[in-house]
Design goal:
The protein has 128 residues and is mainly α. It is built from four helices and no strands. Helix 3 (65-90) packs antiparallel against helix 4 (94-127). It is elongated, with a radius of gyration of 20 Å.
Length: 128
């Protein structure tokens, strides 16, 4: 799905949300979740192609696959967390959104700890 189709799906979802919010406010958040799910699925298909390209670039550059994998997973955590928090903010649940953002930050830091330890060991080795 290209950017124009994603933008159209987003606009259609927003208009449908505004209409449903006036008629049945209790199901309006489900419209947002449905539209967001459609957009996420379409973006996930594109990400699979990006993943294979990144793998080939890592081989050419001679980078360790483990470190790049950690960075890509952290990026995924950030994107998913931001997406979920934005939906919470849209539904007037700022405290839940803040908790989701905190959980995403902790998850990203936890995932990156092995890489940070390797950098610290390298720095200590260079200092000696």
């Amino acid at each position: 799905m290209d950017v124009v189709k994603v933008a159209a799906a987003g606009l259609l979802t927003a208009m449908l949300y505004a209409l449903v919010r006036q008629l049945k406010p209790e199901i309006a958040p489900l419209v947002i979740l449905g539209g967001a799910a459609v957009i996420l699925v379409s973006v996930a298909e594109k990400f699979i192609g990006v993943s294979s390209t990144v793998d080939s670039m890592m081989e050419l550059a001679g980078l360790e696959k483990e470190n790049v994998s950690i960075l890509i997973r952290c990026l995924g955590i950030c994107v998913i967390t931001q997406f979920a928090a934005d939906i919470c903010y849209d539904n007037s649940s700022s405290s839940i959104a803040a908790a989701v953002e905190l959980a995403g930050r902790v998850g990203a830091i936890t995932l990156a700890l092995p890489m940070l330890q390797a950098v610290a060991k390298l720095a200590l080795g260079l200092m000696k």
